[in-house]
Design a protein that fits this description.
The chain is an alpha+beta fold. The protein has one domain (2-92, 99-289): Nitrilase/N-carbamoyl-D-aminoacid amidohydrolase, CATH 3.60.110. Helix content is 18%, strand content 26%.
């Protein structure tokens, strides 16, 4: 399968220029490579930016599924390159047919197939504290669906990978077990994952992946690794980069494979680069990672965004124990 992650730096509320930024990344790619894609994944809230302070702040950027600017862009790219496209967007639900009803807003991701048809619309289940300022939890559970040309797909958004509200046990592994229950061969995570480091410190090595973040993502897939299955499960982490105020995003978009209890890295981007990661999972991976040790409840925590920065007033901020792991990853930055 030929997979691409579009990692870039959208700005809050700057939708039209964000579209141009994404187009500029695609324009650097070989058109023949784009035409050979099976799947293109974009980050969480790809064209709106992420760090909104309130519902009023994000209101001008809200879209209805299948008819907003994110939908139109994704549909156009899907048709142009005959590939599936996954894009994160802020969803506004039309509840007029259910009146009287309260408005509904979700942090969502649309899935288009190569014919330009919507084949999935997933609403984020495990919200980050920034999401809670405007969005509801999706009530239908994590996404699973058999999609032609892709297979059995499991889809999540960013902190869906975390324990629920950081209150569930570490080893509940809600999303990890969902992957197994869905019998997924393809897992897609659209992300806006942050670091607690100050932006100026974090950005000193822009071309290097943030291995702490990548290791954490892999640790949260422990049920899939420990299932020791013969069939490979391909996992796509598409994250954004850049900064929004004091928030610095970790980039490090990656495609990995899990087979026979071993993690293979097909490709990974640097933490602060705007680029298109393109991999072909029919070719040998770049490297292999050591299998994570078994977890015990409370033994690890994410570098971020399991909890907001210490200056943020949020009830979860002090509830995440420090992380430790013997998992090793040594991928090289590649396109």
């Amino acid at each position: 399968m030929r997979i691409a992650c579009l990692q870039f730096d959208p700005r809050v509320g700057d939708v039209h220029n964000n579209l141009d930024r994404a187009d500029a990344v695609l324009a650097k790619a070989d058109p023949a490579d784009l035409d050979g894609l099976d799947l293109l994944v974009l980050p969480e809230l790809a064209f709106t930016g992420y760090n909104f302070a309130s519902l009023q702040h994000i209101a001008p950027a809200l879209e209805q599924a299948g008819s907003g600017i994110s939908s139109l862009w994704a549909q156009n790219i899907a048709l142009k390159h005959d590939c599936a496209v996954v894009v994160g967007y802020p969803e506004k639900v039309d509840v007029s047919a259910q009146w009287p009803a309260s408005p509904e807003y979700y942090n969502s991701a649309l899935v288009y197939n190569g014919d330009g048809d919507v084949v999935g619309n997933y609403r984020k289940s495990f919200l980050y504290y920034t999401d809670e300022t405007w969005a509801l939890e999706g009530g239908a559970g994590f996404f699973k669906k058999s999609i032609p040309a892709l297979g059995n797909v499991a889809l999540g958004i960013c902190t869906d990978l975390n324990p629920y509200k950081l209150e569930a046990p570490w080893d509940a592994f809600e999303f990890g077990f969902h992957i197994i229950e869905a019998q997924a061969n393809l897992v897609i995570l659209s992300m806006a994952w942050q670091t607690h480091q100050h932006p100026s410190e974090f950005g000193r090595t822009p071309e290097e992946p943030d291995l702490d973040t990548l290791v954490y993502w892999v640790q949260r897939l422990e049920p899939v690794i420990c299932a020791n299955k013969e069939e490979e499960v391909v996992v796509v982490f598409c994250n954004r980069t850049g900064t929004e105020g004091e928030a610095a995003y970790t980039g490090t978009s990656a495609v990995i494979g899990i087979k026979h209890g071993t993690v293979f890295v097909y490709g990974v981007l640097g933490r602060s680069v705007n680029d298109l990661l393109m991999v072909d999972t029919s070719l040998p991976p770049q490297t292999r990672a050591a299998q994570p040790p078994p977890s015990s409840p409370g033994s690890r925590s994410p570098p971020s965004p399991a909890a907001p920065p210490p200056t943020a007033a949020h009830p979860h901020a002090s509830k995440s124990p420090r992380a430790h792991s013997s998992t090793t990853l040594a991928p090289s930055t590649a396109r």
